[in-house]
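Let us practice reading a record.
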Amino acid sequence: RPLAAGVVAIALVTAAVIAQPVLDLLDLSQEGFWIAAGLVLLVPASTRIFTGSTRDVAGPAGALVAMALATRDGLGVTILAAGITGLGVLGATFLPERRWTPMLERVIGAAMVVIAFDLVRDGVIAV
């Protein structure tokens, strides 16, 4: 299970590093991508809020958000955030399943909603 933390960090860093070249290759605007990433992030955020569980840390939403943040906030900040996320996943692998875990998942889901709306807002304002 600790391998998952490394996989998460590598996946998010890779997404951040390739963000600008992919947007350039596909001729996509950064602002439009921020909006799309925010909307996609709402799906796993909703799952976390309503069910209290998830398995999608390095899924498509995470990769899209890493790409959006890399183009919005810079590569260095995004790589730091990916490393912190990897450490969080590593810490979570050592925690036994407890009754408070679903509550924590819901709090994380709420934070994801805030990030999603922030991306959408910044994209709309920039357009």
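A brief commentary: The mean pLDDT is 88.
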